[in-house]
Amino acid sequence: METELKGSFTELRKALFQLNTKDASLLTTAQALLRWHDAHQFCSRSGQPTKKNMAGSKRVCPSNKIIYYPQMAPVVITLVSDGTRCLLARQSSFPKGMYSALAGFCDIGESLEEAVRREVAEEVGLEVERLQYSASQHWPFPNSSLMIACHATVHPGQTEIQVNLKELEAAGWFSHDEVATALRKNNPYTQQQYGTFWLPPKLAIAHQLIKEWVEKPSCSTLPA
Question: pLDDT confidence of 193, banded at 50, 70, 90?
C-alpha cells in the first residue's frame, strides 16, 4: 500500500504535527471508535458476544438486549502559573524532550474544581489558589478521553515543587520567554535540534492552554 500510494505509515501522535483540524478530528474519532469496539466485543453481564449496529455507534447484547454506547473518560488538564512563570511537566512515556501541562483522570464523585486541586497537589505538591476553565477536547490517547482544560494559579510565595516520581519524570517552572520560544518550534519529530524542551502539537488542547498563557499571562489569574 505504501508503494502504491507513494507514502508511508506513521503514528497518529506524530501525524498530528502535520494534519489540519478537520482531518485530525476524523482520524482521532475513527481510532477511538475502533479501539472501543475492540474492547467491547462481549457483554459485561452475560459474557455473550455483542453485535454492533450498521453505523458503528453502539453494540447490543443479543441475549439481554443491553445496549453499549461509546464513552469518554473525563480528564482535567491544568496549566499552573505563579503569575510570571508556568509549570510544565513530563511523564516517562512522553517523547524525548516534550513537556506539557499537568493532567489526570477525574475520580468518581469529584467536581471539576476538586479534580484540578487534587491532581496539582498529588503531582507537584502545590495548592491551587484560583482556577479558570478554558476549553475541552476529545483526545484518543491512550484511550478515549474528554480533556477539560483549565488555568490555575498558586500563591507567588508558595511555589516550591515536590515532584511525585510515581506520576512524573520531571517538572519545573518556565519563564514567559522560554515558553514563547518553544511555541515557535516546528515538528520536533523531523528536527533533531529542538533544544532543551518542546511542546505538544498545535491540535492538542495542552498547546492551546500554553499559547493562551503566553499571549495573555494574566488569563490564569482570573477567578473561575
Answer: very low
Ordered DSSP codes for 101-167: -EEEEPPTT--HHHHHHHHHHHHH-----EEEEEEEEEE-SSS-EEEEEEEEE--TT-------TTT
Average pLDDT over every residue of 149-169: 94
**What is the distance between the terminal CA atoms of the chain, rounded to a whole angstrom?**
51
pTM greater than the 0.85 cutoff: no
Q: Give the chain's length.
A: 224
> What's the CA gap between 51 and 110, in Å, rounded?
33
Instruction: With residue 78 as reference, give the H or E element that holds it.
Output: strand 73-81
Contacts of 46 (CB under 8 A, 6+ apart): 61, 63, 64, 66
By three-state DSSP, how is residue 85 classified?
A: strand
Cell of 33: 471508535
The whole-number pLDDT of residue 221 equals 46
Q: What digits encode the pLDDT tens for the residues 80-117?
A: 999 899 999 999 988 888 999 999 999 999 999 999 99
- Distant-in-sequence, close-in-space partners of 141: CB < 8 Å, separation ≥ 6: 12, 13
What residues contact residue 91 under an 8 Å CB cut-off, 6+ apart?
167, 168, 169
Nearest to 142 by CA among 73, 48, 194: 73
Tally of CB atoms within 10 A around 72: 15
Q: State the cell numbers at 205.
A: 488542547
